[in-house]
Amino acid sequence: MKLLTDLETVMQREQNKTKIWKLVLTGGPCGGKTTGQSRISTFFENLGWKVYRVPETATVLISGGVNFADLSPEAAEKFQENLLKTMIQMEDTYFDLANAVADRNVLVICDRGTMDASAFISREQWERILARLGLDEVEMRDNRYNQVIHMVTAAKGAEQFYTVEHHAARSEGLDEARERDTRAAEAWVGHPYVDIVDNSSDFETKINNLITRVAWSMGLDVGDRLRSGAKKVKFVVNGPLPGDHAFPSFRDFTVHHHYLQTNSRMMQSRLRKRGRKGKWSYTHTIRKQVSGQMIEVKIPLTHRDYSTLLSQEDSNHFPVYKTRRCFLFQNQYFQMDIYKEPCHGRCKGLMLLETYTTLTGEDLLKRLPPFLNLGNNVTGDSAFSMFNLSLRDDWANNKKFCHRLSDDEDEDEDVKRVTKQAQNRLDASMSRQSSPNGSQLLTPEGE
Predict the structure, then answer these.
(1) Please, which pLDDT band fits residue 93 given cuts at 50, 70 and 90?
(2) Where are the transmembrane segments (predicted)?
(3) Cβ atoms within 10 A of the Cβ of 221, count?
(4) 313 within 8 A of 325, measured Cβ to Cβ
(5) In whole angstroms, how far apart are CA 9 and each of 4, 16, 85, 102, 202?
(6) What is the homologous superfamily of the domain 2-220 according to CATH?
(7) Identical fold at 2-220 and 232-441?
């Protein structure tokens, strides 16, 4: 029981220790970013948090008399380089202040982040700037901030509320606002925790959705004060995949998962290694059932900590190897996982698409990418749980199979029925895949 006690201690310590949460709030013109900052600040200050707000660097510089129309291409590129340097220095100043707060949780809200600087120049210009400054894009995008939230411009779906009044640095018409919104969102494709807050509701609900997504990502329980209804949905993707040209702008990552020993039905523990072009990040995730609710804690790790925890790997599970493709489509952020060998035969050719959304039914289906051949909605289906998919032994009568996190020993009597039904659902879905090797079309270095 020592292992279980240790995991519970780790989980409790992570929930209790002071947090520093670095949030990027980005989006298109007139998306509610300014109001959102204010409301987030008030909400977390009322919870006892210290909140720092990093001002938008572009607004600070442009309000000093800069007019892009007057700049040559060389001058515009140099301006973006200086903007990025200034932004990093400003953010680092607030990050240092946050680190100096010893007795309170700290939220740092960045009004746009480093990748926003890439949205309005060419890829070649951006890469030249990174080279001159000695910066690594993957490190800067994926590891600098805990979370990125994109507030969709009112020019997409709430046109009657779009205005450029009361904002000295804003002059965009509807079409330009839509284009800037799309480019800003695409700049962050690849970050592991991106949320898109759209205009499918009224503005007050939009702001509440924003606050809820921040609190949820932190693992904070806000009850029903800010009910938003956003949930993760999961669909099977049937092969073969279309060519890369069919996708919008995307990033591919190599992802490895390892399940760790827990000695409890009530808890799952796993490691994640996520990387691209030789740059890796490491996370320890612990999930536990508490009073009928699922509590999940994510702990960033160093490579050394990751390697140490690997010694606790659960031999009942295969390591899970995936290619994860991240892309934005119709203001929705998607992650598509493609299972790779070595794996159990049940996973060969398996591809799953996930997103977080408040939409259901036909509204949800209309938002899904039409260039993918999607199969069943398998949200919450134990047959498509990574925990079960990674089990080394067949599911039949396998007491390690997890229908739900529970310590009810009586559920053992249902193992045969539950596992048979799950196997039937998985088999039915896999039989509809026209190409079991479709996943091989993806490579981790895709663009």
Answers:
(1) very high
(2) none
(3) 10
(4) no
(5) 9, 10, 41, 21, 42
(6) P-loop containing nucleotide triphosphate hydrolases (3.40.50.300)
(7) no
